[in-house]
Amino acid sequence: MATQVPGWDTCGLCGSPMHSRGRRDKPRYVCPPPRGCGKVSIDRPALDDWAADAELITALDGHSEALDELNRSYFDTAELTYFEWTCTRDALLLATEQITSDAPELLPSGFPPGR
Ligand SMILES: [Zn+2]
């Protein structure tokens, strides 16, 4: 459980930490009693895949918010020069491309602009 997605590594019923258990061919995350409720378990590879995608989506959301703020700083409040805006925008878009290079299915169509 190396991901940083908030809340995914605790039991949805009792809030106890989930633990990795199960056979080698069928690994699972479980909420083990007596500390946990013992009622919740989930396929470990499926949850790990979901968590990895969720981390990427969270990062992309952060880039989207940063791009919105950057555009406001240039177009609305004129706090940036054109050069500052283009350099920052290009660095942000490059970082987004690097994040999505391993998961192109996460990129919305038409993003980044010009592609
Ligand atoms: Zn539980």
Describe this structure in words.
- This protein is of the alpha+beta class and 115 residues long.
- It contains two helices and three strands; from the N terminus they run βββαα.
- The protein has two domains: 10-39, no CATH class; 45-115.
- It has helices at residues 44-76, 82-100, and strands spanning 19-23, 26-30, 41-43.
- It has a three-stranded antiparallel β-sheet with strand order 1-2-3.
- β1 (19-23) and β2 (26-30) form a beta hairpin.
- The structure holds zinc ion (ZN).
Succession of helices and strands: EEEHH
- How many domains would you count in the coordinates? 2
Number of strands: 3
User: Low-confidence parts, pLDDT < 50 over ≥5 residues?
Assistant: none
Shape: elongated
Please sum up the structure shown.
The chain is an alpha+beta fold.
List the helices and strands and how they pair.
Blueprint: E1 19-23, E2 26-30, E3 41-43, H1 44-76, H2 82-100
Helix pairs in contact: 1-2
Bound molecules: zinc ion.
Zinc ion binds at residues 11, 13-14, 16, 31, 36-37, 39-40.
